[in-house]
Amino acid sequence: MYQKCKLIHADLSEYNMLWHDNKVWFIDVSQSVEPMHPHALEFLYRDCTNVVEFFTKCRVPDVVAAHDLFNKVSQLDITPSTDQDFLSQVWEIFVLQAVCTFVKLACISPFCNQVYSCS
Q: Which of the residues are catalytic?
């Protein structure tokens, strides 16, 4: 959903995932947010935590940690020491992305003569 649709469910749990024809189908997506939402990455981490907790409770073997799932889905590489540290790093990435987006939008003007590099 994140990689193909550029959306974050923002309320993902076992009740919003259906297994059909060997695929996971996500439902109840009306509250989904785009990645530039101020809390998007926090919502994504919470979604990952909910999924991991569910499969752990079901005693599924080799369930990945929530931060590993988050990194795989988001294609980021954040190494946490604690949950709060992880969320702090997520917030820093969001702020950097927001600044870069603002700079890129501001430089659409023909009056912009500086080159910015945001990756």
A: 11
